[in-house]
Amino acid sequence: MKPAKSDTEWTVPLIPQLIAAGTAGEGVIRVWVCGCSTGEEAYSIAMLLQEQLEASNRNCAVQIFAIDIDHRPIANAREGLFPTGIASDISPERLAHFFDLEPDGSGYRIPMSIREILVSWR
Ligand SMILES: C[S@@+](CC[C@H](N)C(=O)[O-])C[C@H]1O[C@@H](n2cnc3c(N)ncnc32)[C@H](O)[C@@H]1O
Fold it and tell me: Ligand 1 center to residue 69 CA distance, Å?
């Protein structure tokens, strides 16, 4: 997942604007992630939007379209499964909120509530 520094850069200027536009308009925020690789960026954006929607007590649909020219990382991205090492990149609060530890402890999986925001992987 993306480190905290870029998180701050994203959340302050961009996410509130997207939420304001999405909730005032047709009620959908659509994001296109080009060159998404294994999906870290796409999932990070989904989590940031979800967090900010909850914090602002607003509600609108979020759809993320993620593409990559290489089909191999896309297959991994769809699974939403990441190595346990991601724990060093994200806060304990986000880890608890957005990731489920696999039963055998082999990795962290993004829950369906976030995975379903990613409406298209190509
Ligand atoms: C460094 S990775 C990007 C990682 C991703 N943005 C993230 O932060 O999780 C670059 C990716 O861009 C993809 N890519 C390169 N050229 C592309 C193109 N023309 N169209 C779609 N994907 C492309 C590559 O296959 C590679 O997976």
Answer: 7
Residue 112 belongs to some domain of the structure: yes
Model confidence pTM above 0.85: yes
| 73 Cα–ligand 1 center, Å | 9
> 76 is in which domain, residue-wise?
4-9+28-121
Domain total of the chain: 1
Q: What's the CA gap between 19 and 27, in Å, rounded?
A: 9
Distance CA 35, CA 28 (A): 23
C-beta 41 within 6 A of ligand 1: yes
pLDDT tens-digit readout, 3-45: 555 555 555 578 888 888 888 877 899 999 999 999 999 999 9
pLDDT at position 56, please?
87
* CATH code, domain with 113: 3.40.50.150
Residue 29 DSSP code: E
- Decide if 55 is inside a domain: yes
